[in-house]
Amino acid sequence: MSSVTFETQRTALADVVAIPVTPFAEDGTVDQGAHRALLRRLLDGGITTLTPNGNTGEFYALTPEERRLVTELTMDEAGDRAVVLVGVGHDIPTAVASAEHARAVGAQMVMVHQPVHPYVSQGGWVDYHRAIAEAVPELGVVPYIRNAQLSGARLAELADDCPNVIGVKYAVPDAARFAAFARDAGLDRFVWVAGLAEPYAPSYFSAGATGFTSGLVNVAPAVSTNMLEALRSGDYPAAMKVWEQIRRFEELRAANGSANNVTVVKEALASLGLCRRDVRAPSRRLPEAERAEVASIAAGWSI
């Protein structure tokens, strides 16, 4: 299967790759109405790549049934307006079942979460991803890399076996390491997505990324698309103006080992009346003292 087959998918990765939140109802279940409304808001805001079951969607706190539901809701709302990249992970049979479900409902790609096993060897990383990619050869496969030890040569080895591995969500917080990794793996062979969102997008774009992930996009789609436009045109001063706009919000999300990564996004959405602020353990609601600051930032963005 040639890479030409995946042209649509590759184009979709070179964009704002939105990671939608999973809103919860008062009884703790997935709030399907709010979820659909938030997805429509992203689509109406010009977002054309959606990742259900990403980390901002609280992937690890959802049950298998909920993950399937979130995928189906996203596919239903996206229709022909967006390309859907479904997050899959956990043990290999679970990840394969999720990928097969994604294929069955019409998704075009899967993003494979970084294995959270305490013992990840480089060869084992290749084996894990190969098992998933080979199960769904028709789907584009995007490894989500958070492992600073992994070498670019290992990614190249995986893609030699599995030509449907077409893009990479690179989320090691080190721009120099990213530049080296991308060149060791093959800069032009993959679509490189800056996996640490807007704060890292300018530095990663300068090293070869052409897309970036975003959780902030749930709150203010225009802010994310403004940064993308600046980066696409090589206007780094303009991109850094957006960076300054989003800096404090992203610092709040990243504080204490990203403890409130999802919490801050949901707090902002709650302040705008778009969903409840509830998150699932091991995340926790934002303390009252910090809510006003998040609400103030979100209000400043909504024009």
UniProtKB/TrEMBL annotation:
Q: Which UniProt keywords apply?
A: Lyase
Family matches, as Pfam families: DHDPS
On whether Lyase is a keyword of this UniProt record, the answer is yes
Q: Which InterPro entries match?
A: Aldolase_TIM (IPR013785), DapA-like (IPR002220)
The answer to whether the entry has keyword Lyase is yes
Q: Which family does it belong to?
A: Belongs to the DapA family.
Put simply, this protein is called: Dihydrodipicolinate synthase family protein
